[in-house]
Amino acid sequence: MYSGGPQVCHHCKQPGHFVRDCQLRQVPNVVALLGGNGGAPAQDNDGLLSTPNAIVPYRPPAANGGQNKGSRHNSNHGTNQGNKGYNNQGYDNGYNQGYSNNYGRTGYQQRPRNNWWTDNREREKNERFDKVWGWFSEEMENKDKERRAKEEKLEEEEEKRKVQAAEEERAKAKKERKEFERSLERMVKDNMKEVCQEVLGKKASTSRVSTAGCVMEARRDETRSDEGKRKEQDDRWRREDSAAREQLEKQRMEEMERLRKDNDDLIRMASQLWQSQ
C-alpha cells in the first residue's frame, strides 16, 4: 500500500482491504487466478475487479470511504454476515452460531467471575489458621501435661523424702534413747555400788533412803536430758523443713520460668509458621 493512493492488498492486488484482512491469504498465485480471464480482469458495477475463480467470494467494504481500519472483530463480523453463500449454509451453522456469537458479533465477553475464587481463598486461609491453631493447642496441651507430671513427680518425691527423713529421725532418736537408758542404768548401778560400799556400816534404813534419793536424782537427770534432746531434735527438724520448703519453692519458680520461656518460644514459632504460609 502506498501513502496517498487507494488501499490495495499486496497479496491479491484487490483494493479495499489490507493483507492482514485478506480472505485469500492461503491461496497461492491468487493474482494469476483473479486475472486469468485473458489477463484483463473485468470490473464490476462498483468499479472493483471481479473474482470469478476465488475460493471465497469477495465482498466490497462497507460504505465508509473504502477505509477498513477496524479490528479483526469488525472483519469477522462483516464476513460472517456477508458470506451467506459459504458460511451460512455449512460452517457458520455449527461453528459461527456457537463460537462467533461471543467473538464475531458482540466481541469477547469475559466470563463473569463468581465468588468461587474468593471462597476458596478464604477456605484455604481458614484451613491454614485451623492447622496452626491445632498444632499450637496440641503443643500447649502437651507442655501443660508435662508440667503437671513434673510437679506431681516433685511433690511425690518431696513427700517420700519427708517420710523417709522422719522415719530416719525417729529411728535415730529411738536408738539414742536406748543407748541413753543403758548408759543411765550402768551409771545408776555404779553409783549404787559406791553408795553401798560407803554406807556398809550404817543402818539399812539410811541405806534405803540414800539409794532412793540417788534413783530419783538419776531419773530427774534423765528427764532433763530427754527434754533437751527432744528440743534439739525439734529444732533440727524445723530447720530441715524450712530448708526443704525453700528448695521446693526455688525449684517451682525455676520450673515456672522455664515453662514461660517454652510458651514464648511456641508462640514465636506459631507466628513464624503462620507468616510463612
TrEMBL record:
Residues 43-92, 141-182, 203-265 are annotated as: Disordered. The keyword rRNA-binding does not apply. GO terms for molecular function: nucleic acid binding; zinc ion binding. It comes from the Eukaryota. Pfam families: zf-CCHC. Residues 217-265 have a biased composition (Basic and acidic residues). Keywords: Metal-binding, Zinc, Zinc-finger. InterPro entries: Znf_CCHC, Znf_CCHC_sf. Residues 78-92 have a biased composition (Low complexity). Residues 9-22 form the CCHC-type domain. This is CCHC-type domain-containing protein. It comes from Chara braunii.
